Amino acid sequence: MNRQGQYPRFTDDARAAMVIANRTAMQLGSECIGVGHMLVGVVEADPGIRAYLPEQYSSYSTLISFLRNTDHPEKTGYVRVITETAMKYVQSTGGDEISVKHLLLAIVTDSDEILSAILDQAGTDAPTLKEAVLADL
After folding, report:
1. Helix spans in 28-71 (H)
2. Contact 86, 102 (CB under 8 A)
3. Three-class SS of residue 98?
4. Across the strands, what pairs with 10?
5. What count of other Cβ atoms lies within 10 Å of the Cβ of residue 134?
6. How many CA atoms within 13 Å lie on the side-chain side of 55?
7. How far is Cα of residue 14 from the mean position of the Cα atoms in its chain?
8. Under the phi-then-psi rule, with left for phi > 0, alpha for psi from -120 to 50, and beta for the rest, what region is 111?
C-alpha cells in the first residue's frame, strides 16, 4: 500500500495538514474543505507556522471558534486550487515536494474573506504574511 495516498508530492507534515483540514471540515459540518479548514490544518501540522500568524489566531481552539462563529461560503475545488498554487511555489524554488509553508503561501495567495477577517482583526494583511513566509523558504 502506498503510504502517501492521494498526496504523493507532499511532505509528511503537509499530508498531515490535509488530513487535519479534512477532519476539521467534517467536524464543522462542511461539505468541502475551505480556507479556514486549511489554516487549521497547517497550524496543527506544523507548530512553527504559528510564528507567521497573529498570536490570537495561532491556536486550534481559537481558529475553530472563529470558524464556528463566522458565516463563510464553501468553494468546491479549493483544495485543487491550493495544491496547484503550492506546487508553483515548489517549482519556483527548485523543490519537488509541497511543504506546509508552501500550503500556507498558497492559502495566502488565494486569500478570501475568512483569511482577510482573521488578518484584519490582528492588524495585518495577506501580502505582509506572504512576504514573511517567502523570506523563510
Report:
1. 35-45, 60-68
2. yes
3. strand
4. 98
5. 14
6. 0
7. 9
8. beta
> Which among 45, 49, 29, 41 is positioned nearest to 82, based on CA atoms?
41
Other beta carbons within 10 Å of 51 = 11
- Radius of gyration for the chain, computed over Cα atoms and rounded to the nearest angstrom: 14
| Distance of alpha carbon 23 from alpha carbon 28, whole angstroms | 9
Q: Which amino acid is at 83?
A: T
State pLDDT tens for residues 76-110. Answer: 678 888 899 999 999 998 999 999 999 999 988 87
Report how far residue 112's alpha carbon sits from residue 72's, in angstroms, rounded to the nearest whole number: 10
Q: From CA 69, how far away is CA 63, in angstroms rounded?
A: 10
How far CA 98 is from CA of 7, 16, 38, 122, in Å, comes to: 9, 12, 14, 27
Q: What is the pLDDT of residues 29-55, one digit of tens each?
A: 888 888 888 888 998 899 888 887 777
Q: 12-136: what CATH class? A: mainly alpha
Residue 113 in grid coordinates? 474573506
Rounded-to-integer distance, Cα 80 and Cα 57, Å = 25
Query: Three-state SS for 136?
Result: helix
